[in-house]
Specification:
heterotrimer, A mainly alpha, B mainly alpha, C alpha+beta, A: mainly alpha, Formate dehydrogenase/DMSO reductase fold, 15 helices, 3 strands, 68% helix, C: alpha+beta, Alpha-Beta Plaits, 2 domains, four-stranded mixed β-sheet, 9 helices, 10 strands, globular
Chain lengths: 408, 158, 266
């Protein structure tokens, strides 16, 4: 295997600055949406006292989960010593940090009192997984940056493996923390299960990989850097495994709910009678987000077409948003079991009268805030690629495939 | 980043304090609003110089004692500040203390220090006493606070 | 405010006075000095603001006798709204009334439920249950959601960042988020955009030596007397006596939260 040469992103200035301007505009619109929501209060969103976490949280959680997943490519190279992945390590670290910052930004800007961020940074209740997450998220950024330095500075090569292992452990903790936000909630039937923590880890593998492949293909195409079929095939294989993993965890989730206690009504709601949440589950998450991309990447013809591969990644991302919609919004919309075995006939506070599920109609500012976070993540990635030597000059088979010489 | 924020905050506070000191020197010594209860008093709950520089610490200390320990008897209650420093407008209604030319508002405007208290706290004595002096604001014959719907626990004189 | 039903529970008051004495003896010397200074003034009597720290010698709670709760009566709800300034919330201009109805803060509501098997219909008021082990306190990242020594679960809105995790965690949907600017506020019930709040058992009344809560008073005044407020730790309190006699239970008792609000007849 040859020595990998990393180079800054060499786009024509017009193209680079044009891309930055486009992303900055989207981020700016997100900023305006934040300002509007902050100034008016949350009444301008579709969020209510029932659906307390809405669209901004879908974007935020997706970005945070994808961030830890995007680091996987580096981890596979460092921790598990798979050499074909090692050239991707630097880019993987950059993307992970960028996605996390974008996600955190959305989360923070949706707070009722974003001006009190300093309180969140200085006053901790360590019984709360949220407080731990503040440390896990900020720690992740610091650790991955250090890991990046060990990848890029030859003098620190001795610490490379240790930093990579720490980053890998930390990202597992981070996603466990994110899944536990929901897993620890005893009040709501849809949450309240420890299986959500590993489920979020597998989801992060998948969503992070899909984002990684898409951005990598875009970044290389812009700079006319080749990606060999060998690498893409390996990434595709990984993706197929992760899709199967998510499907398995969906099955475990529902089996847990069916077996653990009387939650038939909840399972019925998700799988059959939940209206838009049932549609989002079957069509958005399972079909579009899992089965369709699975079919595409394993298809003998379509699977070899890079446009179809990019499409499959896009589907995984859409399905990822659908999965969070089903889990986070759907989980809140399902009425609390205030009076087991009794039906609520009337309520002065929308307590799921007659088992009715809560409505949620997101408004434009919520979407724009979320998109703003995505734009910030991409902005950081673009600047990082341009300023630093993160992307290999070539990911062609002869550079990456350890057996390329033998094959030739 | 947190440390940077805290440091930045301290620098800003320090500058604001310096400005405040300047303002005090420039404007003489009396800033109470004519017509308020405070104007009739000889002194504040603490020496005036001390209150000028430390009122926020005093209020913050009382805030924690009240919210977490339920202590409402001390002289440092925010409700007490408002009751004493609120001015009566021409119509007999109290004028919010954070208005531009009022006790809290005027000084914070000058010092450019954002006033957070009144995001949540009432700016005129309304809705019953809290702590000593909390309900003692309006002189007899003066209409109580902002008009409230019938049946509200109105400001009472104890 | 001059409600005749607001007779002061002398037994509880006496207990509190002795509890304060115990606290004085046991607390740190510095605090002792402070307490002695306060003791120079007349002791805590009716309508007198609290001078000493709340202690866990007291645990406030309620018994709601659903057999006395009248269908269609919302006296407790309107009393709470008035007492805590919830009726001063105004719908923002341009808001959708149906959506705003789900965004407005409410501390107590009436619920009517029917047993699926027996068909028995029960009316009851539902509010924060003031758990001994409150999930909202566990999940709050900043410690803004807390339990006072006397068992009242409340929000320190100086620390609340508006993340709404407590609302996700509460099994009783007791909490509300303030979705818009609040123009008119009461001195005794501060309220502001972007924070979460819920029933605090009329904490201002507790600290000013009043006997009961607005909802309990209103229920009594309406002639139902379905809400009994008092000290769960004082065996002589009317609340404890009633709880000893009447079979009662906690809502969602499977969660083992040891709620301070108990229900009879559900």
């Amino acid at each position: 295997m040859k020595r990998i040469v990393y180079r800054e992103w060499h786009l024509a200035p017009q193209r680079y600055w044009g891309l930055l301007a486009l992303l900055a505009i989207v981020a700016g619109i997100g900023g305006l949406a934040f300002w509007y929501m902050e100034h008016q209060g949350h009444w301008v969103t579709g969020m209510t006292n029932e659906i307390v976490w809405g669209t901004p949280h879908l974007f935020a959680i997706f970005l945070i989960v994808a961030a830890s997943g995007a680091l996987n490519l580096a981890s596979i190279g460092t921790v598990f010593g798979k050499t074909p992945y090692q050239p991707l390590g630097r880019f993987s670290g950059l993307l992970a940090v960028a996605l996390l910052i974008g996600g955190l930004l959305v989360l923070v800007l949706d707070l009722g009192r974003p001006d009190r961020l300093i309180v969140a940074m200085t006053s901790y209740n360590f019984r709360s997984i949220f407080a731990w997450n503040v440390l896990l998220y900020t720690g992740f950024i610091a650790i991955v940056l250090a890991y990046l330095v060990t990848m890029m500075d030859r003098r620190l090569r001795a610490y490379y493996k240790a930093a990579g292992t720490l980053a890998f452990t930390w990202r597992l903790l981070l996603t466990t923390g994110t899944g536990s936000i929901f897993g620890f909630i005893v009040a709501r039937q849809a949450f309240d299960t420890a299986v959500l923590a590993p489920m979020f880890i597998v989801m992060s593998f998948l969503y992070g990989l899909a984002v990684f492949i898409l951005v990598l293909m875009f970044a290389c195409a812009q700079d006319e850097r080749p990606i060999g079929a060998y690498l893409l095939n390996r990434l595709k294989g990984l993706m197929a495994i992760f899709i199967a993993g998510v499907l398995l965890f969906i099955l475990i989730y529902f089996l847990t709910k069916l077996y653990g206690a009387k939650h038939y009504d909840l399972v019925n709601y998700y799988l059959v009678s939940g209206g838009r949440y049932t549609v989002a589950f079957w069509f958005g998450w399972v079909f579009l987000g899992l089965l369709a991309p699975f079919g595409i990447i394993l298809h003998p013809v379509l699977g070899q077409d890079r446009r179809w591969l990019a499409g499959a990644c896009a589907l995984v991302i859409l399905g990822g948003m659908a999965s969070l919609y089903v889990l986070v919004i759907g989980g809140q919309a399902y009425p609390l079991s205030l009076f087991p075995d009794q039906t609520i006939l009337e309520s002065g506070f929308h307590d799921g009268v007659g088992g009715q599920i809560s409505g949620y109609a997101p408004t434009m500012p919520e979407f724009l805030l979320g998109l703003g976070g995505v734009a910030v993540a991409m902005l950081i990635t673009a600047v990082g690629l341009r300023a630093l030597q993160l992307l290999p000059e070539s990911l062609a088979d002869k550079e990456v495939d350890p057996h390329a010489a033998v094959k030739a | 980043m947190a440390t940077a924020l805290v440091t930045g905050g301290r620098v800003i506070l320090g500058l604001a304090g310096a400005l405040l000191a300047l303002a005090v020197q420039a404007g003489g010594s009396n800033f109470v609003i004519p017509g308020s209860q405070a104007a009739k008093e000889q002194r504040c709950v603490e020496p005036t110089d001390f209150m000028r520089r430390n009122h926020m610490e005093v209020i913050k200390h009382q805030r924690d004692a009240t919210v977490h320990d339920g202590i409402r008897s001390t002289k440092h209650s925010l409700a007490g500040c408002i009751a004493c420093h609120v001015a009566q407008g021409p119509s007999g209604h109290p004028v919010p203390v954070n208005d531009d030319r009022q006790f809290c508002g005027a000084c914070h405007e000058f010092a450019a220090v954002r006033l957070n208290c009144f995001d949540c706290h009432a700016t005129v004595p309304a809705g019953g006493p809290l702590g000593p002096g909390g309900g003692a604001a309006p002189a007899p014959g003066v209409a109580p606070g902002t008009p409230l719907p019938p049946g509200h626990p109105q400001t009472t004189v104890r | 405010m001059n409600n005749p039903s607001e007779a002061i529970d002398q037994g509880r008051r006496g207990f509190m006075r002795s509890a304060a004495g115990v606290a004085t003896v046991t607390l740190a010397p510095g605090v002792l000095l402070h307490t002695l200074a306060n003791a120079a003034s007349p002791g805590p009597t009716a309508g007198e603001p609290r001078a000493v720290q709340v202690t866990d010698q007291v645990r406030y709670g309620m018994l709601i006798d659903t057999t006395k709760c009248a269908e269609g009566c919302t006296a407790c709800v309107s009393a709470c709204d008035r007492e805590n300034g919830l009726d001063l919330q105004t719908m923002p201009e341009g808001a959708d009334p149906a959506l705003w109805d789900r965004q407005e803060a409410r501390w107590i509501r009436k619920v009517k439920v029917q047993d699926n098997l027996t068909g028995k219909v029960t009316n009851l008021p539902l509010m924060c249950q003031h758990c001994e082990h409150p999930p909202c306190v566990d999940v709050c990242p900043t410690g803004a959601s807390f339990k006072r020594a006397d068992g009242i679960v409340m929000v320190d809105r100086h620390l609340c960042i508006g993340c709404r995790y407590c609302m996700m965690a509460c099994p009783y949907k007791a909490r509300s988020f303030i979705h818009t600017n609040v123009e008119v506020k009461l001195t005794l019930a501060p309220r502001g955009k972007g924070c979460v709040e819920s029933c605090n058992l009329c904490v201002h009344r507790r600290d000013n030596g009043q006997a009961s809560t607005a909802c309990a008073d209103a229920c009594a005044a309406a002639g139902h007397g379905a809400i009994l407020f008092g000290d769960l730790k004082d065996p002589a309190s009317p609340l404890s006596q009633a709880l000893a006699k009447l079979p009662s239970r906690q809502l969602r008792e499977n969660l083992a939260l040891n709620t301070g609000v108990r229900y009879a007849g559900v």
